[in-house]
Write a structure and sequence with these properties.
Blueprint lengths: L3 E4 L5 E4 L1 H10 L4 E3 L5 H5 L12 E4 L3 H13 L4 E4 L15 E4 L6 E4 L4 E4 L5 H9 L3 E2 L10 H6 L7 H4 L6 E7 L5 E5 L4 H7 L8 E8 L1 E2 L3 E10 L3 H13 L5 E9 L14 E9 L3 H13 L5 E2 L2 E4 H5 L11 E2 L2 E5 L4 H11 L8 E6 L21 E6 L1 E2 L5 H15 L17 H8 L3 H11 L18
Parallel strand pairs: 4-6, 5-6
Antiparallel strand pairs: 1-2, 3-4, 7-8, 8-12, 9-13, 10-11, 10-12, 14-16, 14-17, 14-18, 15-16, 15-21, 19-23, 20-22, 21-22
Bound molecules: flavin-adenine dinucleotide.
The site of flavin-adenine dinucleotide has 35 residues, from strand 5, helix 5 and strand 12.
Length: 476
């Protein structure tokens, strides 16, 4: 193997000698991929097609020993390093230009203990894989809504989904982790051990080390739940969004209902004349007993004059995959999101005014329903701060042509700027794009200073900086 020129932590250049690279490769059980390998282009790909970066080396980790070797190699050579779990972060932090990508995707075992109702999960596991294993025992824990997403990045940023109003964020169900810190040590963190670190990783993202194992608490769910979509014409949007606001803020915890403005797909369950028009949808999941759920969701089914009502009992695993086709990897994506309280009428009118027409067929405006158990945890109990927000308001443009980047990014920014006066200052860290330090601080709110102290302790050199970065004191 020849010497390679790689990017350093501070964006300089360093030469990696052939012997050092060879030694590193020998320390790994998984393959070390270079730009010459056939698998290189597949391995560097992530979900957001707008991010096209070329690491110098990719370590496909087979286990914790590989992670330790990779962290040590990166630190000793002052290399820029990116951590890839499921590769779904829209900001694209899972891949770096010129440095080392630590790819955890081969680490994908899930071990469920049905009696203790816990699961041990490796960091390359996707939500689909996790649900597959846990639902075999009628168990689940709150995760996200698109099944190809990685559980690692999602959990470390908080993680919310259909079950969160009943059982909290993903991190509220985290019992412990194994984590490799910047000094190459493997630590166990839980409420009883390295408690400060355990506090920080529950929301603090990948700032403190590489998690090699998660232990989650599970709950009885399904295997069938009441769920599905209700599709309405856009003309009724203002009334529907007002109804959704009032209904969901009073709803029981078992019900999670999103409202979204989308372009109707050419789906067989929609009349042909609706295809390609803007529609409003309610997407819901009631995770308690189905008969009780039928009553709870009735008002959502009887309001207005829906084009389609697809709410029915279905496997929880199917609910978790309900949106997969809308978010396939490869397209270009830019996200603007903000946490909001129930929107006043004026803000709803503004959203409706701006939403139609949507700039591309795959663009979505989504109001995600939070509250319930999420809000019953104190804002300083974990690094995740914004517990009290009622909704997350998201503008998700999606397109394929690179020449349209500027137009769609500007559209999303202008949309969110218009909504901003009605929003809280908070944002869910999982949904941030690359938006700068002030937005990272906004995501962590009053917990930010404590996170900086933790970063000073566990990663003073900021080795783990390809993330929504909590900068250690004194770093530029
Ligand atoms: C289509 C789609 C739907 C989504 N839906 C939801 C949702 O419903 N709810 C929700 O909360 N979020 C949702 N998200 C956001 C998602 O949680 C974040 O993008 C998350 O970062 C994805 O995790 P990943 O492992 O796939 O990402 P990656 O891009 O692989 O990782 C993201 C970052 O997490 C860190 N990281 C990953 N693994 C580790 C590890 N083992 N140790 C240390 N750091 C690590 C790294 O800093 C990395 O850059 C969604 C994202 C997409 C693209």
């Amino acid at each position: 193997m020849a010497s390679l020129q790689a990017t350093t932590l501070t964006n300089g250049q360093t030469v990696l000698g052939s012997e050092a690279i060879q030694l590193f490769a020998e320390r790994l059980r998984g393959p070390l991929i270079t730009r010459d390998d056939d698998t290189y282009d597949t391995a560097r790909q992530i979900w957001n097609g707008m991010v096209d970066k070329r690491p110098m080396l990719i370590a496909r980790c087979a286990g914790t020993a590989d992670v330790i070797a990779s962290v040590n190699f990166a630190r000793d050579h002052d290399l820029l390093v990116a951590i890839k779990g499921g590769g779904h972060n829209a900001a694209g932090h899972a891949v770096c230009a010129g440095g080392l990508m630590i790819d955890l995707s081969p680490m994908n075992s899930v071990r469920v203990d049905p009696d203790a109702r816990t699961a041990r999960v490796e960091p390359g596991v996707t939500l689909r894989e996790f649900d597959h294993e846990t639902q075999a025992f009628g168990l689940a824990t709150p995760t996200g809504q698109v099944s190809m997403t990685g559980i690692a990045g999602l959990a470390l940023g908080g993680g919310w989904g259909w079950l969160s109003r009943s059982h909290g964020l993903t991190i509220d169900n985290l019992r412990s982790v194994d984590i490799v810190t910047a000094d190459g040590k493997l630590l166990h963190a839980s409420e009883d051990e390295n408690e400060d670190l355990f506090w920080g990783i529950r929301g603090g993202g990948g700032n403190f080390g590489v998690v090699t194992s998660f232990e989650f608490q599970l709950h009885e769910v399904g295997p069938e739940v009441l769920a599905g979509l209700i599709v309405h014409p856009f003309e009724a949007a203002a009334d529907l969004l007002r109804f959704h606001r009032d209904f969901t803020t009073e709803a029981p915890d078992e019900l999670c209902c999103y409202a979204a403005i989308i372009e109707a797909p050419p789906a067989p369950f929609l009349p042909k004349e609706v295809h390609g028009t803007t529609v409003v949808i309610f997407a819901l999941c009631y995770s308690g007993p189905i008969r009780k759920g039928q009553k709870v969701v009735e008002p959502l089914r009887t309001i207005g004059d829906p084009i389609a009502d697809l709410v029915e009992p279905m496997p929880f695993t199917a609910v978790q995959q309900m949106f997969d086709a809308d978010y396939k990897p490869g397209a270009r994506n830019y996200w603007k999101t903000q946490l909001v309280e129930p929107l006043p009428d004026e803000a709803i009118d503004l959203v409706v005014d701006r939403a139609d027409p949507l700039p591309t067929p795959e663009t979505k405006i989504v109001l995600e329903h939070l509250g319930g158990a999420i809000a019953r945890v104190a804002p300083d109990a974990t690094a995740y701060h914004h517990r009290n927000a009622a909704f997350s308001f998201n503008v998700f443009p999606r397109w394929t042509d690179a020449e349209e980047d500027e137009a769609h990014i500007s559209w999303a920014r202008a949309f969110m700027a218009a909504v901003a006066p009605f929003a809280t200052n908070g944002v869910g860290v999982n949904f941030l794009s690359q938006e700068g330090d002030e937005r990272v601080k906004a995501a962590y709110g009053d917990n930010y200073d404590r996170l900086v102290n933790l970063k000073n302790k566990y990663d003073p050199g900021n080795l783990f900086r390809m993330n929504q970065n909590i900068r250690p004191t004194g770093s530029a």
